[in-house]
Design goal:
The structure is a single chain. The protein is of the alpha/beta class. It contains 28 helices and 17 strands. The strands form four sheets. The chain has a seven-stranded mixed sheet with strand order 7-3-2-1-15-16-17. A five-stranded mixed sheet has the order 8-9-12-14-13. Strands 4-5-6 form a three-stranded antiparallel sheet, with no helix packed on it. The longest helix has 28 residues.
């Protein structure tokens, strides 16, 4: 019990206690909550699931989300390894992952006379699995996780054993009635949803949901439906956030990326944004120009209409030139970005097609740009300005896109400190000597955490500041800087070499270079310094990083700096998989410790359902605790202890007479 001397008759403490008394209006209520919370602290910590660099690969993402990086299959195997064949266990796991589709298939392939027995067996097995994954939660938490309308009956089935005295027939009758009245499918769906909900307590997305893959919007819909998720912004996410905020420069970059990978589905189908204005403009102004440099990348083995590819290339050329112009305008507006070296349109000799970059002359592969004014190359033509005006309107009026952007702002940030781990996507900008890079911003010199905090403030300003205000424009420009600025903590490279890749192709010139962080982060001393900068220390503190793929096929280890750094970008995106040799890493942190899992390429949802194919995954446990981690050891535990301290103060205030109990009707 706290010392009574801490209580005062006035001030913030008394106001706080009066507010708390509205929620716990009596000695009994406060005491009961203290008992509940104190017991809760001794439960095992919930499982955290980390994923990164999803890049629109929605099918692979949904599968790994459904199987919790193999955790659900482990539970199935733990219960049934000795009683079911591997095929039967695979079918059961697939039923949990893709419940609706697998149920439909089973109904079609199972004789009607055998379905009741299948339902009975399956319901019993699923209840056992659900009971196992629910074992480290309170009963109230489990009820909250159960789908509404089914919680009472499922709760009954979960929390009393079938061998309970006098209740065996009672439970058998519950299952028999569920089957008899035709509700077995609904109960299976509800129990499978509860299993997936309970097996992971918290999902961390360490950046780059967007670009390259077909449907990042489907990933975003799934994240919005998740019970507990946080997002550390990646540079591709921040680009879409800038586009949603109405930045023309960001919109042009988004379209350039989508067209480069021949992925207009996310724009037109996913977000309902019409590209007709760009298509008409491109046909008119670039219809007779060379398109060789602007042909979109196509998937191996895909079938494409040559006319469609040619039209896409025209659109690509049109938006690329608009992009170079808008980026030039943004750079000129913001000398503090120190990106003058990326002003390239005015360095072209339009008679010979030669360009001078970093003191060396190169021959362009294409310099037929009919909309570029040699005297003012960064000025948009009236037609280009109109196209961008229409596109900006469409981006800002897309209800689905705006929902997703607001979700990214509400659930996201530049970094997260969670349970002694520091999560961020890109880098902490550093100098060659390993010191944090200093930035002069608004009359202050910032580095390390202070600079990262500043970048998040400006990123939010770009969306939430008053429309048409200087603050809004500054924030929108900064969102673009975070996408590709040479000192951006989300980009971490020297330059975004879009111009060089499209128009020159010189391999050395296209090298973007990496921030010194990516050399120093292999050193434990550097990682400890970064952790300390963010207020973290101790034997079990780590950095969880994404952004730069780990080249697994060359033997690169995702665990670096003597275990202080874990890089979980392993090639989720199909475009990276030939380079990395795998299809991504994920991380699981449960009450026993941390394990990292590598995944093989995903064959697709159809194969997963039809043939019960899981993603082939390999897990490595690299840190195991001597004793199980309890909620008391987590950030949630620290918050709960604060709640308990407040409740103890309230309890003492009731007993002292400082706060009056409320029993209703007074």
């Amino acid at each position: 019990m706290p010392n009574d001397a801490i209580f005062t008759e006035s001030g913030e403490s008394l106001r706080y206690l009066r507010m708390l008394s509205r929620q716990f209006p009596s000695v009994e209520a406060a005491a009961t909550e203290i008992i509940r919370l104190q017991a809760y602290l001794n439960l095992p910590k919930g499982t955290e699931h980390f994923m990164s660099d999803l890049h629109g690969e929605h099918e692979a993402f949904l599968h790994i989300l459904n199987n919790a990086s193999g955790a659900i299959k482990e539970k199935v195997d733990a219960l049934y390894a000795n009683s079911l064949s591997s095929k039967e266990r695979a079918v059961l796991a697939t039923l949990i992952y893709y419940t609706d589709a697998k149920l439909k298939e089973i109904r079609e392939e199972t004789p009607a006379a055998e379905m009741d027995e299948w339902y009975k067996i399956t319901l019993n097995r699923l209840i056992e699995i659900c009971r196992l994954v629910a074992s480290k939660y309170t009963r109230a938490q489990v009820r909250d996780a159960l789908p509404k309308g089914y919680e009472q009956i499922i709760d009954e089935l979960l929390h009393t054993g079938y061998d309970a005295l006098n209740k065996e027939q009672y439970y058998e009758n519950i299952l028999a009635t569920i089957i008899d009245i035709g509700r077995a499918d609904e109960f299976i769906i509800a129990i499978c949803a509860a299993i997936k909900r309970l097996v992971v307590d918290r999902l961390h997305i360490v950046g780059d949901i967007f670009d390259r893959g077909l449907r990042p919007d489907i990933i975003m819909d799934s994240l919005m439906a998740h019970h507990r998720v946080d997002i550390q912004w990646g540079n591709h996410d921040i680009l879409w956030m800038g586009a949603g905020a109405g930045s023309r420069t960001c919109i042009a970059n988004v379209l350039n990326n989508c067209i480069t990978y021949n992925n207009l589905e996310v724009i037109e189908t996913g977000y309902g944004i019409s590209l007709r204005p760009l298509a008409l403009f491109a046909s008119e102004r670039y219809g007779k120009t060379d398109l060789t440099c602007f042909m979109p990348r196509t998937a191996e083995g895909g079938r494409y209409n040559p006319r469609d590819l040619e039209q896409t290339a025209r659109m690509h050329k049109a938006i690329a030139i608009i992009l170079f112009k808008l980026e030039g305008q943004t750079i000129r507006r913001n000398p503090s970005f120190r990106m003058e070296h990326r002003l390239l349109l005015d360095k072209i000799d339009y008679d010979t097609g030669r360009i001078m970059i970093d003191g060396k002359e190169y021959q362009l592969r294409d310099w037929d740009f009919p909309t570029v004014d040699r005297a003012d190359p960064y000025r948009l033509t009236e037609e280009e300005a109109e196209v961008m005006s229409q596109l900006r309107f469409s981006f800002q009026q897309s209800e689905k896109l705006q929902r997703h952007i607001k979700f990214l702002y509400s659930k996201g940030g530049m970094y997260l400190c969670c349970n002694q781990n520091l999560l961020f996507h890109g880098c902490i900008p550093m100098e060659e000597d390993g010191s944090f890079t200093s930035f002069d911003v608004d009359g202050r010199t910032l580095s390390g955490k202070a600079f990262i905090d500043y970048t998040e403030t400006l990123a939010r300003q770009g969306y939430y500041a008053r429309p048409d205000s200087p603050e809004r424009q500054k924030g929108k420009d900064f969102l673009w800087f975070l996408w590709c600025g040479s000192s951006s903590p989300l980009f971490g490279r020297g330059k975004m070499a879009t111009f060089e890749r499209l128009l020159i192709g010189d391999k050395a010139l296209c090298e973007e270079g990496k921030n010194p962080y990516y050399r120093h982060n292999n050193e434990e001393e550097t990682c400890l310094k970064i952790l300390a900068e963010f207020g973290l220390s101790g034997e079990y503190s780590h950095i969880v990083n994404g952004h730069v793929p780990v080249i697994s096929k060359d033997g690169e280890n995702p665990v670096k700096a003597n275990g202080r750094l874990i890089v979980i970008d392993g090639g989720f995106c199909r475009a990276y998989q030939p380079k990395t040799g795998i299809a991504g890493y994920t991380l699981v942190y449960n009450s026993h410790g941390i394990r990292i899992t590598s995944h093989e390429p995903f064959a697709g949802v159809a194969d997963a359902i039809r043939y019960n194919k899981d993603i082939l995954s390999t897990s490595v446990i690299f840190e195991t605790r001597e004793s199980r981690i309890k909620i008391a050891d987590t950030d949630d535990g620290a918050r709960i202890r604060e709640e308990i301290a407040g409740l103890r103060q309230l309890l003492a205030a009731y007993r002292r007479g400082t706060i009056k109990e409320y029993h209703g009707g007074e």
